[in-house]
Please model this.
Amino acid sequence: MNKASVLTCILVGILVVSLGFNFYQYSQNASLSSQNSGINAKLEMASLLTQAQLQANAELEKLDCALAEACAQLSVTDLQGSQARNILGELAASNPLIVNAATCDASDVLLAVEPDQYRSIEGEDIAGQEQNIQMHQTMRPAMSGMILLVEGFYGVVMVAPIFDGEGAFFGSLSIVIQPSELLKDTVEPLAEGKPYSFFAMQIDGRIIYDADPAQEGKMTFSDPAYADFPELLALGHIVSSETAGYGTYSYHETFASAQVVHKEAYWATVGIYGAQWRLLIIHTLNA
Model:
């Protein structure tokens, strides 16, 4: 072999080694970039979830404060008189999350309801509703899960006892809210422009908020839509039993989509008066 051929072989060998090394570096950098991207996504998810949790709890606390203030005003009035109606009207108008406000007598019969479009339910007995049962047991404020209301639609009720000047219980004040509206106002600004969505359920599995409204109201553990996804159901049971955590599962990309993708989720707890909602932030994984 002449010198030119030898030199050519050497140069080709150097080129092959160089290309191989560069490819290795690229692969390593791509791997690290992918790992860093995954870590950054998890950190961002945890941060957004914490913000959402704090804001949602703050909204519930605002409602609690408004309820307490109105109870104090009602403690010195007739619970179905004009003054009581003024207090109820002001309470309902004070926060767009409040659908209506109502007083009950000591036996849980509705006395006055505002705004006036809901007055047709006055006189209804709501003693069997879960929040009233809990309130009578503890003589403290209580919040229901999603229940069918005497108004004819599903909602959540927050109720508080009313005591007279001598500390005797003589009635209660309740407000109806829609948790989907509370959570929507809280989480959608946080998720805007980001590859995440939020979801919330009661600990019994009922969905109370989803970026896809078609899923709201469904029971995670019994609805046929979820029956073929054991990972989802298994994670749902863990979410139900633990106040915070992380997990992965497979499900449709969206409720209307046939494509099944792998997803990850962090969750935390929102609630008041001992009632708990699980709030999740969800990210679709590339792999």
About this structure: Residues 1-34 have pLDDT under 50 and may be disordered. The chain has five helices and eleven strands.
